[in-house]
Design goal:
CATH class of one domain: Alpha Beta
Strand content: 5-15%
Structural class: alpha/beta
Helix content: 40-55%
Length: 233
């Protein structure tokens, strides 16, 4: 039987890797074990074949660890869940907001005021991604959030987007074992988990007393159109 030359072996391995990458890009399921088996059958060393088999698992593990350590890495990881057609823009404003939110999570800041230009993703970072990050990646599903806005529809939307992230496949794969949403209270305006945490949304003129939350979030408390109105103030 004719022996496979090293160059031919390398070609077969590279071809297998390219086929796997193309399949992943096209959305087709790729079996790392099958790629590893093909590489091994082509005469590839066992160590390299195992590397092909575990490459995807290693990338997933690294992505999980980065998301747990850095808030913006978590945002980038889960951003496609709520904005599949728009890329996440990571700039200085987003970095500043994220660093301050991380400080709140760590207990170094107890009161935070964010004044940034419109379109800086402040609302999404503070009122959507942050709670999901603290509940799962940071292991604090006991935290309770109360959020207000001038518009009840706005807070409802943000509450729902946070819930959408929590229910997403990537979130459940990485942190689904840390808590479960309570099906008996799984609504846009209010939902809770099995570890004592909950999220409730309201408007500035809505309910505020009677709830004991760990995070009080006032996101756009007044409409900019009424900012100079004495009656509205």
């Amino acid at each position: 039987m004719r022996a496979v030359r090293p160059a031919a072996t390398l070609l077969l391995v590279v071809t297998a890797a390219l086929v796997g990458a193309a399949g992943a890009a096209a959305g087709a399921p790729v079996d790392p074990a099958a790629i590893a088996a093909a590489a091994l059958a082509a005469g590839c060393p066992v160590e390299l074949a195992l590397l092909f088999g575990h490459a995807r698992q290693a990338r997933m593990r690294d992505a999980k660890l980065r998301a747990e350590a850095c808030f913006l890495d978590f945002v980038e990881l889960t951003w496609p869940v709520i904005e599949p057609g728009q890329p996440f823009v990571r700039g200085r404003v987003q970095e500043a907001i994220a660093l301050h939110l991380e400080a709140v999570t760590a207990g170094r800041i107890t009161k935070l005021l964010c004044n940034v230009p419109p379109g800086s993703t402040k609302s999404l970072l503070v009122n959507v991604f942050w709670a999901a990050w603290e509940w799962g990646p940071k292991g604090r599903p006991d935290l309770r959030y109360m959020s207000w806005s001038y518009s009840p529809d706005l807070t409802l939307e943000h509450n729902d987007l946070c819930r959408k992230i929590i229910k997403s496949e990537i979130y459940q794969r990485f942190w689904g074992e840390r808590f479960r949403l309570d099906e008996s209270s799984d609504a846009k305006g209010f939902y809770r988990n099995d570890k004592g945490g909950w999220r409730r949304s309201s408007s500035i003129k809505g309910a505020a007393t009677g709830f004991r939350a760990d995070r009080l979030i006032f996101d756009d408390p007044h409409n900019v159109k009424d900012a100079d109105s004495t009656a509205s103030l």
